[in-house]
Design goal:
Length: about 290
Amino acid sequence: MTAKHQRLAYSFLWNSGLIVVGTLIQAVALKAVALPQQFVPGGLFGVASLVYYLTEWLNPGLLYLLLNIPMFILGYLFISRRFLGYSALAMTSLTGFYQLIDVEFTISNQLYSALVFGALLGAGAGMVLRSLGSNGGLDVVAVILNQKLNIGVGKVYFFFNLLLFSASFACFDNDLVIASMIAVFVCSMTVDYCLSLFNQRKLAFIVSAQPDEIAEQVMQNLKIGATMVPAMGAYRKQEYKMLMVVINNIQLKRLEEIVFTVDEYALFIVENTFSVLGSTFSRRKMY
């Protein structure tokens, strides 16, 4: 990542744009798909939806706003003001868009509705999470617990949603709750995909009798660095240098061609990496 791209990633306009567009997509998913089907989303919006379905008091958007008040008090006490500010923008944008949007997607099949709802909600949430803020609500608690107690964000959501859907089974038709759970699962998969879309790299290990020549070709032709890792063969106990290269998907085939052009007997091992931080790659996100 260049210095220009790093400045963009931390700029106010970029982060605000991600949040506004992401919350707009989420609001469409919640108002146009979830509300007509009476799906129970995960997290605090799920609590707000559950209360609304049972009492018809206010609406899920306004209830979500009220539930966020204690969350943001916690955020103010334990997380940075920048994180809190961006998260507040996300929360108010979602509530505002939810109030303004008046559209309904006509999807008669409950399973299809769950899939569409989960994909749209996950895409919007993923965009917001690529910013320096969060979607508000349970995200704030999850970040605090992760920073203070090293509790995984996924675990926080899992146990919270476990309680939420257990309560839903007691109040609603089982098919509806199961469809809601499918939607939440699709949403989580879509969020993961959005977060890894531009961060995913390939980690290549190259075992060759000519590591220096391969490294030279890689640096010269691909304009990327390489690392020599000391290694030893298990059978002959012979010491050698293994080459480690972090590369993107586009350049992977070119790296393969360089390796086997130099040494047709080389061993070429490739692994997926979710995120690579530091050096010329992505900058660590600081809340």
